[in-house]
Write a structure and sequence with these properties.
Blueprint (H helix, E strand, L loop, with lengths): L16 E12 L3 H7 L10 E3 L2 E10 L5 E7 L2 E2 L4 E2 L3 E4 L2 H11 L3 E3 L1 E7 L2 E8 L2 E18 L7 E5 L2 E5 L2 E16 L14 E12 L3 E3 L1
Parallel strand pairs: 7-8
Antiparallel strand pairs: 1-3, 1-15, 2-5, 3-4, 4-7, 5-6, 9-10, 10-11, 11-14, 12-13, 13-16, 14-15
């Protein structure tokens, strides 16, 4: 169970948010059996997987309403009667991002430590809990750049948080290159073992900008 912050515990930055930075997006077609058994999906989505494209995202935000932060998230695909995507696992290295993400869009963020390093054209990303690395991957972009946007890889989110339903449709764009991604270490106790499924595509987007609008909220 993820602890819920109290209203007085954090500074509020209400939507919309506009963020800039760089991102790595891996596109998957996750099997239903894998999602149900290994996807670490919350109870309200159990038995609700409806397929569609899934995304693993690593983002290094250099500008946001709460300052720079890093992010790792998983969207397995579409769920339920709404057939919308859901972020089922997400880590960031900013408490302000965690608490505002939950309050603004119902996104189940958790705060962890990140190392994000780039050397000789390769990006190394490590996510840690109390100095224990549980996610470690390397990314090497290659080839020519091309325009990338959510028009090609749409995101249409449905989340539940504290008895509320959140419907959010972010939009993003940037310049992308294809990328080769190696998973060096994933500890399944912390994050789903996406290295068990071969991605359809991996793209490094820099510059990267995304707009998170005010959601539709239903009590």
């Amino acid at each position: 169970m993820i602890a819920s912050p109290k209203n007085e515990d954090f500074q509020k930055f209400p939507p919309p948010w506009d963020l800039k930075g760089e991102g790595i997006i891996l596109v998957f077609k996750f099997p239903k059996k894998w999602v149900e058994e290994n996807g670490q999906i919350p109870g309200y989505l159990k038995g609700q997987f409806e397929g569609g494209l899934g995304y693993l995202m690593l983002v290094n935000y250099t500008e946001s309403p709460v300052g720079p932060y890093r992010e790792l998230l998983l969207i397995p695909g579409k769920f339920g009667k709404h057939r919308k995507q859901s972020i089922t696992k997400i880590f960031v290295d900013s408490d302000l991002s965690t608490m505002n993400g939950r309050a603004n869009w119902g996104i189940p963020k958790e705060t962890m430590d990140f190392d994000w390093e780039e050397s000789d054209g390769e990006i190394q990303v490590r996510v840690k809990s109390r100095n224990q690395v549980f996610f470690d991957c390397s990314i090497r972009p290659f080839g020519f750049s091309f325009p990338a946007s959510t028009a090609l890889l749409p995101i249409d989110l449905y989340q539940q948080w504290e008895g509320k339903e959140f419907f959010t449709k972010p939009s993003g764009k940037g310049r992308g290159k294809l990328a080769k991604v190696n998973f060096n270490n994933i500890k399944a106790d912390f994050f789903p073992s996406v290295n068990q499924v071969k991605p359809l595509l991996a793209v490094h987007i820099r510059p990267f900008q995304i707009h998170f609008p005010k959601p539709i909220i239903r009590e």
